[in-house]
């Protein structure tokens, strides 16, 4: 059961047909692992597919006790939060530095580290630290940490070492160590590279509106004012492309101080907007009681 009392069911689905990859290759006989909760109605019109963030848990509805937007006409509604049509050069640069931290780790062994009974923890830790910096705004980092010294008053003397001196250093190292304890290094490399390559407009001569023209659903797009990694300007690119296709789109630019991580946090305006759109979805699909 999850926190709301709904049964969470672990599911496995095996596919025998090869999955074609954009790079030209393919792989087959793979298994998809996912979780479901709730119950489909007779029309199967109340299904919600939730795609989690890069390193977030897939346990959307809580922990069980015991491919790609390729079917555009099977969606009725799409909620796109703190996103971008493609990564900027700056975002690709952050991903590359993180990947180099992993690949340069002596324990990486060309990606076959499990054969040697090790994992590239130090590289993963640094990669996570780099990423985490980009998820927070400067204002939030200043508010939460400022120039506070770890475990000491800010007026005390510096230790003049390369060990942890400031609270922000302690926080980043903690995040890095936690991440390295559960995330696979090769998975991190592949996912960040896939993000670099993602560009739906590329197959349409760089015209994002032509890429969006295949869709027939309604859209809700939301961005956060202090998100500098996936800024509101990038969300507005998506909105403009949708409008050029005469698609129905609702856009919200939400005041939030937390940077990109705001999409994970408790923001009353954000939650109110999501709730209102969810109620609209239910009414549109004839699901409202």
Radius of gyration (Å): 22 Å
Given the helix and strand composition, which structural class is it? alpha/beta
DSSP strand tally: 7
Content of β-strand:
5-15%
Report the mean per-residue pLDDT as an integer: 88
Written description of the protein model:
This protein is of the alpha/beta class and 289 residues long. It contains 8 helices and 7 strands. The strands form 3 sheets. A 3-stranded parallel sheet has the order 5-6-7, sandwiched between helices. The protein has a two-stranded antiparallel ribbon with strand order 1-4. Strands 2-3 form a two-stranded antiparallel sheet. Helix 7 links the parallel strand 6 (218-224) and strand 7 (249-254). The chain is globular, with a radius of gyration of 22 Å. The two termini are 24 Å apart.
Properties at a glance:
289 residues, alpha/beta, 34% helix, globular
Short characterization:
With 289 residues, the chain is α/β, with parallel strands linked by helices.
Question: Topology, pairings included?
Answer:
Blueprint: E1 8-15, E2 19-20, E3 26-27, E4 30-37, E5 77-81, H1 89-103, H2 121-135, H3 138-144, H4 167-180, H5 185-197, H6 208-212, E6 218-224, H7 232-244, E7 249-254, H8 268-284
Parallel strand pairs: 5-6, 6-7
Antiparallel strand pairs: 1-4, 2-3
Helix pairs in contact: 1-2, 1-5, 2-4
């Amino acid at each position: 059961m999850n926190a709301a009392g709904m049964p969470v069911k672990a599911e496995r689905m095996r596919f025998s047909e090869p999955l074609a990859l954009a790079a030209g290759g393919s792989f087959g006989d793979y298994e998809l692992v996912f979780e479901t909760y709730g119950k489909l109605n007779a029309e199967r019109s109340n299904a919600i597919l939730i795609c989690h963030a890069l390193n977030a848990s897939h346990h959307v509805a809580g922990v069980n006790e015991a491919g790609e937007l390729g079917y555009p006409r099977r969606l009725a509604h799409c909620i796109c939060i703190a996103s971008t049509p493609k990564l900027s050069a700056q975002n690709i640069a952050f991903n590359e530095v993180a990947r180099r931290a992993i690949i340069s780790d002596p324990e990486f062994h060309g990606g076959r580290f499990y054969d040697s009974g090790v994992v590239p923890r130090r590289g993963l830790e640094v990669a996570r630290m780099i990423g985490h910096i980009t998820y927070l705004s400067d204002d939030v980092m200043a508010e939460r940490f400022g120039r506070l010294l770890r475990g000491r008053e800010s007026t005390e003397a510096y230790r003049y070492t390369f060990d942890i001196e400031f609270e922000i250093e302690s926080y980043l190292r903690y995040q890095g160590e936690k991440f390295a304890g559960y995330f696979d290094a090769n998975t991190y490399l592949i996912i960040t590279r896939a993000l670099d390559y993602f560009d739906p407009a590329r197959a349409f001569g760089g015209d994002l509106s032509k890429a969006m023209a295949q869709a027939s659903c309604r859209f809700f797009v939301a961005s956060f004012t202090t998100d500098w990694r996936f800024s509101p300007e990038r969300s507005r690119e998506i909105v403009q492309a949708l409008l050029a296709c005469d698609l129905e789109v609702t856009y919200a630019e939400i005041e939030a101080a937390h940077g990109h991580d705001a999409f994970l946090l408790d923001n009353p305006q954000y939650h109110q907007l999501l709730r209102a759109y969810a109620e609209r979805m239910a009414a549109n699909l004839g699901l409202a009681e």
